Amino acid sequence: MIASARMTNEELFLARRLAMTLSIELFDVLPRPQKGDGFLISEDGNPNTMGAKLIGAATGKLQEIASGVSSGTIKSLLVLGEDALECGVSETDLEKLDSLVVTAILPATRTTASATVLLPAASWAEKRGSMINLKGRLQRLNQAISSPGGLATTGRFFATSSRR
Fold first, then answer.
1. What is the CATH number of the domain that holds 150?
2. Domains in the chain: how many in total?
3. Is 43 in contact with 85 (CB distance < 8 Å)?
């Protein structure tokens, strides 16, 4: 399972719990190193790396996941809010998978194009939750707009509304 450190603490908690329930041992988030300015821009391009570490979602196993997909020992991959190609998995390796389940905001990545199952995800503006910044401070995220298409959000996990 590959998750995103752009997800809220609540989403990461649910993703970690799903991994434990399904006995998924290889679980990680994509690091996003960037050049910081020492003032406003940090060297971490993810807003919730600290939360991912505290929840146990940032495990350092991303290379092992990519190698397992490449060698064929990993037959299924669950990708939550990321592009697997940015995580070291090639397009050829995605084709080797028996199943590829992806949650995404837009169906515009090479990973979503290869998905066996593609589920819609909420953008940062469509959800509420919390994140932990680099200084260890809990920060709230409030929903600014409703999700389109009659979907009810619970973090990044959706249920279709029966009302129209």
1. 3.40.50.740
2. 1
3. no
Strand pairing class (129-132; 138-141):
antiparallel
Least Cα distance to 79 among 119, 124, 33 occurs for: 119
Spatial distance between the Cα atoms of 115 and 96, rounded to a whole number of angstroms: 12
Name the residue among 121, 102, 3 with its Cα closest to residue 55: 3
CA 95 to CA 150: how far, in whole Å? 32
pLDDT tens digits, 71-119: 999 999 999 999 999 999 999 999 999 999 999 988 788 899 999 999 9
d(CA 164, CA 151): 10
d(CA 7, CA 92): 27
Q: How many CB atoms lie under 10 A from the CB of residue 114?
A: 20
- Alpha-carbon Rg for the chain, nearest whole angstrom, is 16
Say how far apart CA 74 and CA 46 lie, in whole Å: 26
Q: Which backbone phi and psi does 87 adopt, to 5 degrees?
A: -100, 5
Cut 0.85: pTM above it: yes
Domain that holds residue 107: 2-160
Report DSSP state, residue 44: B
